[in-house]
Automatic annotation (TrEMBL):
Residue span(s) of domain Oxidoreductase molybdopterin-binding: 272-407
CDD domains xref list: SO_family_Moco (cd00321)
One function term, GO molecular function aspect: oxidoreductase activity
InterPro entries: Mopterin_OxRdtase_euk (IPR008335), OxRdtase_Mopterin-bd_dom (IPR000572), OxRdtase_Mopterin-bd_sf (IPR036374)
Superkingdom to which the source organism belongs: Bacteria
This protein's UniProt keywords: Membrane, Transmembrane, Transmembrane helix
Pfam families membership: Oxidored_molyb
Protein name as catalogued: Oxidoreductase molybdopterin-binding domain-containing protein
Membrane-crossing residue ranges in chain numbering: 21-49, 87-107, 128-147, 159-177
Amino acid sequence: MRDPSRLPTSPGFWRSPLRGTWFTSVLGLVLLVGITVLFVTGLVSYAAYNPDLSPVNDMTPDKGVLGFYLFAWPSGPVWLYRFTQGLHVTLGVTLVPVLLAKLWSVVPKLFTLPPARSVTHALERISLLLLVGGGLFEFTTGVLNVQLDYVFPGSFYPLHFYGAWVFFAAFLAHAALKTPTALRAVRHRVRDESELAAPCPDAPTVSRRGALGLVGGGSLLLFLTTVGQSLGGPFRRTALLAPHGTADPGGGPNGFQINKTAAYAGVTAADTHEDNWRLVVTGRTGTVRLSRARLLQLPLHSASLPIACVEGWSTADQWWHGVRLRDLAALVGYDGDPPDVLVESLQSHGAFRRAALRANQVADGRSLLALYVNGEELSPDHGHPARIIVPAAPGVLNTKWVARLTFGDL
């Protein structure tokens, strides 16, 4: 017969002297705050795409009641999406050691027999399974997406979106059951740790405070090697674990981060040559076709705006120069308040070849069809001959290689 003490279902199998109510409670309270912020900033990121505006913006169809909170995304302050998504990604990476330590601290409970001693205990076990599975899924898919190495079947957007709701529902149930106990344990240094503490612990090699210090040190290291992608400037060189976290590509006025190159998007020099390219603008009074030379004859305006991406990276403010979107709307019959606009790109494949912008974004005087950046013509990889730049919008809505603008109801 196999020795029962060697099975995970036996309390004697788990020998670490670190496990205990206080240790688990400290980690749990950190996650209580951190995961709540992650969930809220994730919902905010989804709202920033204005998914209710047009199907082309909605990467998670059939969201149903889960989209109850959606609101029209504002166009200011200009750093809004840069801050919220930078916080979401940086905090998510920073919390990885805390999450892993928390899961390690409670893993014996996953093997406890009998599976359910009461209704409350059954609910706790179910929430724990969903919490563990959901937490690992959300953090894993998020980190892979940040690293641009997404390998899960299916689109990241709906999987991460729906997974977040399942995970957070389990998280709320678990928090409701365990937060009072965790607060008492931290406040009074609870000694009765029979549920989590090993009955026959091995000799300690590090104290629980020391273990928390190691977890905190790991989180601090991840923070320092990630946050630079959002802060920019010299800090970008410290973002060793983040995409676009090294030195800015190239040099000169166009020497800043690129998410999608012209070659990747299938945009050729022939497509953007001034003899071939025309901007088609459609609206209430019909359609006009504008060459780049004709665009340069229109009133030109400037705006200092960053680009912020869903992966958490962002650029410093760049100086953009071009035609205001509301002036282009006026060319096709919208002299007053401009309407929504559908923007279409020359890119031949990839997501967000088309994107919709709300009327408030079009009306903002800083929203441009940019022709220049930092005093120089846009490079091919930055969207030559023309690109959208809108304050506070996710980077993918700042469409490059613009071919058509359709103003009106979408």
